[in-house]
Amino acid sequence: MTRSKKNAVLSTALILVASLTGLAQAGEVRGKVTAQGMSSSESIVVFIDSIPGKTFPPPDLHAVVDQARMEFVPHVLVILKGTSVNFLNDDPVQHNVYWPAINHDHKLAHNMGTWPQGIVRSFTFNVLGDVPLLCKVHPEMSGYVIVVPTPYFAITDKDGNYTIKDVPPGQYTLKTWSEQAQSTTQAVTVKAETVMRGRHANADCKCTDCCCSMATATNANLTVKK
Questions:
Q1: pLDDT digits 0-9 by tens, 34-77
Q2: pTM for the full model?
Q3: Where in the chain is the domain with CATH 2.60.40.420?
């Protein structure tokens, strides 16, 4: 057999081995947040804190906060640092958007002005922390933009459940933010999700060309207190 044919056979064998063995992929962090002293565990932000030596470019797509039915929608918006947010007005009255501080720093207060229905104004958030949104025209309105250091975040549902997807393997610190509760932290280890190709990894799998997950999500339950 010539050297070129041997190399071709070796390459084919390596490709076959790779298709039959596990491939490391991103995993999930999921769990439930229990809120003590609060009426609900809904709309609590859970996110992975900064990862040393790693930065994340903000998305090109702008996030959106609407003003509709005399409310900020959504009430809580979580974004990666550097993300631009479009502020809309869908009400038939004029609205104002301002924040008295960012991360409790009143030097970062900003007033975006007042505008009528159908106008959009944008702002790019480059400082980490909570941004309380208010309206000078309607003082009963309030909302929050939460600026976090990584794209790995989630907001709890009405039962306190959350899922953070596409998390690379590693050891991290989970943090929470809540409008009412104190922030809390918890260490978490995310293991690589293994996907088996070419043979059944799951006994219950019925697919012909199997591509089954061998790992479950990392569970992390947290408790926050008012």
A1: 999 998 999 999 999 989 889 999 999 999 999 999 999 999 99
A2: 0.81
A3: 57-148
Nearest-angstrom CA–CA distance, 138 and 181: 25
- In CATH, what class is 57-148? mainly beta
Nearest of 209, 170, 182 to residue 49 by alpha carbon? 170
The full 3-state SS of the chain, as one line of letters, equals CCHHHHHHHHHHHHHHHHHHCCEEECEEEEEEEEEECCCCCCCCEEEECCCCCCCCCCCCCCEEEEEECCEEECCEEEEECCCEEEECCCCCCCEEEEECCECCEHHHCEEEEEECCCCCEEEECCCCEEEEEECCCCCCCEEEEEEECCCCEEECCCCCEEEEEEECCEEEEEEEECCCCCCCEEEEEECCEEEEECCCCCCCCCCCCCEEECCCCEECCEEEEC
Read off the pLDDT of residues 111-140 as tens digits, 9 standing for 90 and up: 999 999 999 999 999 999 999 999 999 999
